[in-house]
Fold this protein.
Amino acid sequence: MTTTIGVLALQGDVAEHLHILEGLGVTAAPVRHAHELDGLDGLIIPGGESTTIGKLLTLFELMAPLKSRIVDGMGVFGTCAGAILLASQATHHDGRPADQPLLGAMDITVRRNAFGRQVDSFEADLDVRGVDGGPLRAVFIRAPAIERAGEGVEVLARVGDEAAGDSIVVCRQGRLLASAFHPELAGDPRLHQLFLEMLRVT
Ligand code: GLN
C-alpha cells in the first residue's frame, strides 16, 4: 500500500513540503478540512506563526479531529511553528507561559523565538541521530527551542547558542517528530525521510 502524507495547508511552505514528499515517492496532499485527514499515514505541520495556525485549526474545526487522529496513531512531523503546536506547553521567549491553542501531543515545553532578536534567522549544520550521511543544513527562522523533553521523548539534535547554551532542536516521541528549524528550505530531504521511516517501523 502506498504511504499518504498530508501537509496542513493553513499557512507556511506547503508547496515545498509537498514537493519533497513527492520526491521521496509517497502520495502527498494538502489538508484544510477534517475529512482530508481520513486515510493519512502522517501529517506535516509547517512553520509559520503558531498562534495563527492554532486559531485557524480552531476556525477550520480541525483541532479535535487532529487530536483524535494522533491518539489513533497518525504520525505528525511539526516543523518550527508546527513543533510549537505539537507541544504540551509553550512559553514566550522570556519564559512567560504562552496562552495559545496547542495540540498537546508531545511531552515537551517549547520556548518561542528562543534565539533572540539578533539571531532571528541563522543556519547551522546539525548532526541528527537517525540521519546518516553527514550533518544536515538547518535553516532557523524566529525559531523555538525545545527546553524540556519528557521521559518518553528522544532527543535527536541540539544546537549550540552562545547566549543560551545548548538547545534541543529535533526530538521524537513515538510517531511524532518535532524540529525547531525549517527542513523544507535547505534542499535536503533526509529529515522527511526519517519521518517516513518512523511511520514504517513503529
Ligand atoms: N516564531 C514563530 C512562532 O512562535 C515560529 C516561526 C516559524 O515557524 N518559522 O510561532
Notes: Residues 47-50, 80-81, 84, 112-113, 141-142, 144 surround glutamine (CB under 6 Å). The helical segments are 14-23, 50-59, 63-71, 81-86, 190-201. The chain has five helices and twelve strands. The longest strand covers residues 165-173.
